Amino acid sequence: MVILRNGGVRVGIKSHITDEQWERIRPSIARENRRSIIIVTAAFSIMMVLMLLMSFFSSMMSRARILYLISLMLSLLLCFVAVRVKPSDERKIGFLTYVTISCLLVYSTVLGTRLNADLVATAFPAFVLASPLLFTDRRRRIILCILINTAFFVCMSLIFDNPAFVVDDIVNSCLFSAVSIGINSYMLNVKLQQEYAQLKLAELSEKDLLTGVRNRNSYEQALSEYPLRCKRSLGCVYADLNGLHELNERSGHEAGDRMLKCLSAALREAFGKEDTYRIGGDEFVVFACDLDEGQIRSKVEEARRLAEGSSCHASFGVAVSEAPNIDVAELTRRAERQMYGEKRRYYNQPGVERRGMRD
C-alpha cells in the first residue's frame, strides 16, 4: 500500500486499481495517452524520414524503402488525427493508442522477417519491450495487444524467415514478449497508483472534508473563472447557519458538524456540488451561471425546505450580475449583505437568542 500525506490526511492506495478507481482516473489517462501518441508518432515520422533518405545510399536498406514510406504516412496520419481529436474523447484516444502500438510492432515484424529473413530479428524485441511502456491502460488490454502482435510475428517468421533463424526469432519474440508483459504489468500498476494518488491529493486540496463541498482554496481559485463561464449572468448565493454557535456551546461540536452537513447537503441537492463552497466556519457560497434571479431564489427556497426539514435553519442572500461586467468580489459582498439582513430579522424574532453579528 502506498501512503501519502497531505495536510495530515493519509491517502492509502491499494496494490491494485479497482474498477471504480479506474473510472475516476480515465480522463487524465486519456489526456496523457493523447500526448504520448503525438510525441511517439512525430518521433517515429522523423526516424522514417531519415531511414527513407538512407535507403537511397544503402543497398541493404533500399529493399525496405516501401515499408519506410508506408510507415511514414501512417505515423503522420496518426499524429494528425491525435492532434485533432479532443482530449476528452476517451474512446477515440483508446483506439488510437492501440493502433499506434500495433503499427510500431507490425513495422518491426515486417522489417525483421519479410525484409531481413537472413538475419536474427532485433527490431521486434526492442519495440515489444518499449511500446507498451509509452502508454497507460488496463493491464489486460495491454497484454492482449502484446499477445496478438507476438502471434503475428511468429506467423511471419514461419512464413518468411530463413529456416536457420526461425527458432531463434520465435524463441526471442516469445521471451521478450513475456518479459514485456511482466515489466509492463508492474510498471502500469505503479503508474496507475500514482495517477490515482495525484487525483486524491488534488481532491483533498479542493474539498472540504467535513461537508464534501469545495473548500476555501478551491473558491479562491475559481473566482476568476466564473465571469468567463457565464454568457448572460452570474448569480451568487451566500448562506450562513443560524444558531450554530449556540448549538456548539449547548450540545457540542458533533451536533454543530451535523448541522453543517445538513446545510451543505441541501445546497448540493438544489445547486449541485461543483459550484458550492464552504468558505468559513458556517458560511457557504454558491454560484449559478446564466440563471435569472427568480430561478435562483426558487432553488434557494428548495434548499431552505430541505434544510429545515432536518431542523437546520440558515439565512440566505442572493445577488445577480449581468455579463459582461461581472465583478465577482462585489457580487459576493452584495449577497453577503442580503444574508446579514435576513439573519438580523431571524434573531429579532421573539424567543431567538441573539449572537454577535456584523452590521
Account of the protein in words:
The chain crosses the membrane at residues 36-60, 66-83, 95-113, 119-135, 142-160. Residues 232-359 form the GGDEF domain. InterPro entries: Diguanylate_Cyclase, GGDEF_dom, Nucleotide_cyclase, Rev_trsase/Diguanyl_cyclase. GO terms for molecular function: diguanylate cyclase activity. Keywords: Membrane, Transmembrane, Transmembrane helix. With 359 residues, this protein is α+β, with helices and mostly antiparallel strands. It folds into two domains: 2-206, no CATH class; 216-347, Alpha-Beta Plaits. Helix content is 64%, strand content 11%. The protein is built from 13 helices and six strands. It has a four-stranded antiparallel sheet, with helices on both faces. Helix 5 (123-130) runs parallel beside helix 7 (163-206) and helix 11 packs antiparallel against helix 12. The protein is elongated, with a radius of gyration of 30 Å. The two termini are 52 Å apart. The model is unreliable at 1-15 (pLDDT under 50).
The rough form would be described as elongated
The total of helices stands at 13
- The helix/strand class is alpha+beta
Rg from C-alpha positions? Answer: 30 Å
Largest sheet: 4 strands, antiparallel
Reading side by side through the largest sheet, how are the strands ordered?
4-5-3-6
Considering DSSP H and I runs of 4 or more, what fraction of the residues is helical? 55-70%
Order of helices and strands: EEHHHHHHHHHEHHEEHEH
Structure summary, number of beta strands: 6
Distance between the termini: 52 Å
Indicate how many domains the architecture comprises: 2
**Poorly predicted residue ranges:** 1-15
Share of residues in strands? 5-15%
Mean pLDDT: 87
